[in-house]
Write a structure and sequence with these properties.
Strand order of the largest sheet: 6-7-8-9-10-11-12
Number of domains: 1
Radius of gyration: 17 Å
Shape: globular
Largest sheet: 7 strands, mixed
Order of helices and strands: EEEEEEHEEEEEE
Strand content: over 45%
Number of helices: 1
Number of strands: 12
Distance between the termini: 24 Å
Structural class: mainly beta
Helix content: under 10%
C-alpha cells in the first residue's frame, strides 16, 4: 500500500507499507515520509530502522509509477527518480521518452507515449506505454534484459 499527493506538479509519497502475507510479516516493510523534516523513516524486520534524506523525486517503487505517468503527461522527455527501499541505498531510475506509438490492445487501438525506465547499474530495462487517450494511464509494460523480453503486462479491459 502506498499513498501520495500531487503538489506543484510533483508527486510526493506520504506513506508506504508492504506486507508479505505471513502472520509475522517477516519480510514486510514501511516508509514514513516527513517532508517538513526532509527525511524518511524506513523500517523492516530484516533490515531494522533507518532514515534517508528526502529530496524532490525521492519515493518508493509504487509511488514512482504515478510520478512517471505525471511526468509523461507534462511532456518531460528525460527525468530521474530516486527509489527508497528499506535496507538499500537510494537507487536512481532514469526515464527516457522513446516516442509516440499506436498500440493494439484487447480494447482496441490506443494512442500512447512510450518511455524506457532503467535503474542505474542494472541490465534490465522496463518499457511503459502511457495512454494519451486515457489521462496517461499505463496500458502496457514490458521488461527486458540484454534485449530479450522476459515479462509483460497488458491492458485487457477499460471501463470509463
Amino acid at each position: 500500500n502506498a499513498t501520495f499527493i500531487i503538489k506543484d506538479n510533483m508527486v510526493q509519497g506520504m506513506g508506504y507499507s508492504l506486507s508479505d502475507g505471513s502472520d509475522d510479516n517477516e519480510h514486510g516493510a514501511t516508509i514514513e515520509y516527513d517532508w517538513d523534516a526532509g527525511q524518511a523513516r524506513l523500517s523492516s524486520k530484516e533490515d531494522g530502522n533507518s532514515t534517508q534524506p528526502l529530496a524532490p523525486g525521492t519515493m518508493d517503487d509504487l509511488v514512482m509509477q504515478a510520478a512517471a505517468a505525471l511526468k509523461a503527461k507534462l511532456g518531460e522527455s528525460e527525468f530521474s527518480l530516486l527509489e527508497l527501499e528499506p535496507g538499500k541505498d537510494l537507487r536512481r531510475h532514469n526515464f527516457k521518452f522513446e516516442g509516440e506509438e499506436k498500440i493494439n490492445t484487447r480494447v482496441g487501438e490506443i494512442n500512447t507515449v512510450k518511455y524506457s525506465q532503467q535503474r542505474e547499474g542494472s541490465s534490465r530495462t522496463t518499457y511503459i506505454w502511457f495512454s494519451t487517450d486515457h489521462d496517461y494511464a499505463p496500458v502496457e509494460l514490458e521488461r527486458a534484459r540484454n534485449g530479450k523480453t522476459f515479462s509483460t503486462l497488458k491492458l485487457t479491459t477499460l471501463e470509463q
